[in-house]
């Protein structure tokens, strides 16, 4: 996933997974080629600023540069702003905070990766996260998305920096254990929007957790199995690269067939543009 000459931007949230990722990366790769980026989501009562000082010190000890920014500063609207605008317009929630937040964070990570001229963006998605995402997309029958999730898949735009998930085969309990023995100070408050998390993911998480109790190792087997089935498809897709269209509003790459990207669509809808 990472070659000796690579420069990597790591998304660090203040949570255990991205901490474990940063720690391992700084040990196996040249720390001067790693940058940590923490994005504040602008959620009242859930400020990343509280953990940034601790994270900065952690990065300093690892020899890694660390920077921070916020969704509002980069894109004009934070998560709370988006949710308030939505409630004002529809008197209900049509798009979850997690959807807006995920799209915004990915966009910012990619923009910073371009600015700093790095060639990989790494996130701390663990095995449990990855198995849930695979299963969600299998249940939705979304083959294109499954192909994109595979570690060998290519990006389809000059403006997109390759995303990698180096700890995707590591169980969540293992990252928790490592963070614990390393005495890592977790962000203690939970995101107030947690209850709006997509129910399909929450249901799958509970189901798999339950099965794993009786059949230990089931998640790693599933990940390897799906990776293996997808590999020939990924390789054949890589030989026919497509160039994604650009959003007519913001100029960022968007999915085939779209005129404006998902981010602009979400914001424009609630703003009545
Ligand atoms: N605010 C953020 N700033 C930068 N990167 C982030 C942020 N939130 C999440 N990420 C990146 O996306 C990954 C997955 O995020 P998710 O929200 O699923 O958190 P998680 O599974 O609890 O991981 P973590 O323990 O690192 O918070 C994180 O490991 C991190 O690399």
UniProtKB/TrEMBL annotation:
InterPro entries: Ncs6/Tuc1/Ctu1 (IPR000541), Rossmann-like_a/b/a_fold (IPR014729), TilS/TtcA_N (IPR011063), tRNA_thiolation_TtcA_Ctu1 (IPR035107)
Domain tRNA(Ile)-lysidine/2-thiocytidine synthase N-terminal: 8-147
Binding site for ATP: 11-13, 17, 39, 124, 129
Gene3D superfamilies, alphabetized: HUPs
Keywords: ATP-binding, Nucleotide-binding, Transferase
MF terms in GO: transferase activity
One Pfam family named in its UniProt record: ATP_bind_3
Protein name in the entry: TIGR00269 family protein
Source organism of this protein record: Ignisphaera cupida
